[in-house]
Amino acid sequence: MIETDGRPRILIIDDEEVVLDACAQILGTQEFDLAVARDGTTGLDRVGEFHPDLVFVDLKMPGISGFEVLEGIRARDPSIVTIVITGYATLSSAVEAMQKGAYDFLPKPFTPEEFRLVTRRGLERRRLAREAARLRAERDLLREQFASIVSHELKAPLAAVQQQLMLLAHELAGVLSEAQQERLRRLQGRIADLLALIATWLRAISSDLESLRASFRPVPIPTVVEKAVDSMRVLAERKDITLETDVPTAVPPVLGDEGTLVEALVNLVGNAIKYSPAGSRVIVSAGAREGTVSLAVRDFGVGIPPEDLPRILGGLSRAVGTAGETGAGLGLVITRRIVEVHGGTLTVASTPGTGTTVTISLPAAGPSAAEAVGGAERQKEVGVR
Amino acid sequence: MTAGKRLLIVDDDPEFVEGIRGILEGAGYAVEAAYNPADGFVALRKGRFDLLLLDILMGRGAEGVMFARKMRKDPALRDIPVLIITGIREQIAFLFPGEPLHPHLVPVDELMEKPVEPALLLEKVAALLAAAERRKASGGQKAAGA
């Protein structure tokens, strides 16, 4: 949108010289910048050059009709306020003009007072529309920048504190009593929870998952499992939980975004660890059947009562983990969104007291995709493992 | 193995730098730090470092990403292994949609998320240094053969 210099710009498109003159006289040139056009085509050209706030359009003109002009203006900039001038002010033409996006109409002949009134109302409408657009743009900007603002203002200081605590624990390993070490561990645990919570909120608010589709590529399932399990290993070890994987090499790749797929699996593994008793196992397995690749995370934890199952996938449910872990219950919602963007489904099977299996099912990528994955694998060997 | 190895940390958060510097120095590395990309690049060019620990998201932007790209273009710096440290590993997928989680900005790098577990940090640093040694050795052989 182009900013004007404060004086409202008004364009009048009418084939009658006398109407143009009258309007110009009524408005004067003190308060407004005024432009005129004598036919629709010229009028539309003037819209592009003059960037009016308000356009009066005569419905009946030689050449293209007033309705076409309305459509043309709307196509160029829907925020421009249009008012139709009509000599045959029938209800139907007014209604049609409104449907084409006109804000108001002015029947001919009109008095200077009527014209001024309609002009004032139109300009007020324009001011409000611009204000709304500005607020919308501001909101979008805030939303876009939310990720970086939150990560730097909230997450970075916390991570620095945590780093210092880790150093302290490292340096004082042989000096502190068992009770003191435990206190330090609890401090670190609380900060780790906070960091995880911030990360989850960030993902829920800042991510535009739909946009990922444009850059989907074949993703090897073993890589997804390996990365997800790698990033959860420390957490599992802390709770004395064994993370096992069962991924046959023959599992076909899926078409998707590796980062978010890893994220989806990380969420599921994190939940499994959270609801597992110390000393138990969490099994991440993959399989393929009839063009569908499945990724399953199985735990032997507390399980979910059947009546709670629908709520779990619906979002924002929360339960306390076996070591008192809390969360905002966002992980599964995000996981479900990621899976859905990939054209897959998320299912939960659970028996209270026995454990839970959460399964991601995704469409397998075609054979041409498998070739591309071969290329990606070769490329990966350049990096250090 | 750690003796004599020189590490450079480029990160705009002094608290964080202090946190990992202590761990690395405790393990016997010689550590220097720069607190912005410009100073970091100057230090890297004259310091003969064996490894760089780089914060990828300094300030508000991804200045670390720019830093890494600049490094990649410089033949004198291209082969220095880089341990990329980021405050927002889990957001990289969202910041750079479609890019792999591990961005491979330089030929040899590894990615870690803040905060960094001391044992894991030492393990990754040692692995990167060892890999760089191996590459240097095999590169040297090739040169000798030619």
Write a brief structural summary.
With 385 residues, chain A is α/β, with parallel strands linked by helices. Chain A has helices at 17-27, 40-50, 66-76, 91-99, 112-171, 178-206, 221-238, 258-274, 309-314, 331-341, 367-380, and strands at residues 9-13, 33-37, 54-58, 81-86, 104-107, 217-219, 242-246, 254-256, 281-289, 292-299, 345-351, 355-363. Chain B is built from five helices and five strands, in the order E-H-E-H-E-H-E-H-E-H.
Could you characterize what this model shows?
The complex is a heterodimer of chains A (385) and B (146). Chain A has 385 residues and is an alpha/beta fold. In chain A, 51% of the residues lie in helices and 18% in strands. Chain A has helices at residues 17-27, 40-50, 66-76, 91-99, 112-171, 178-206, 221-238, 258-274, 309-314, 331-341, 367-380; strands spanning 9-13, 33-37, 54-58, 81-86, 104-107, 217-219, 242-246, 254-256, 281-289, 292-299, 345-351, 355-363. In chain A, strands 2-1-3-4-5 form a five-stranded parallel beta sheet, sandwiched between helices. A five-stranded mixed beta sheet of chain A has the order 7-9-10-12-11. Chain A has a two-stranded antiparallel ribbon with strand order 6-8. The longest helix of chain A is centred in the middle third of the chain and has 60 residues, at 112-171. The model of chain A is unreliable at 368-385 (pLDDT under 50). Chain B is 46% helix and 17% strand. A five-stranded parallel beta sheet of chain B has the order 2-1-3-4-5. Chain B starts with 5 loop residues before the first strand and ends with a helix. The chains are: A alpha/beta (385), B alpha/beta (146). Chains A and B meet through α5, α6, α7 and α8 of A and α1, α4 and α5 of B.
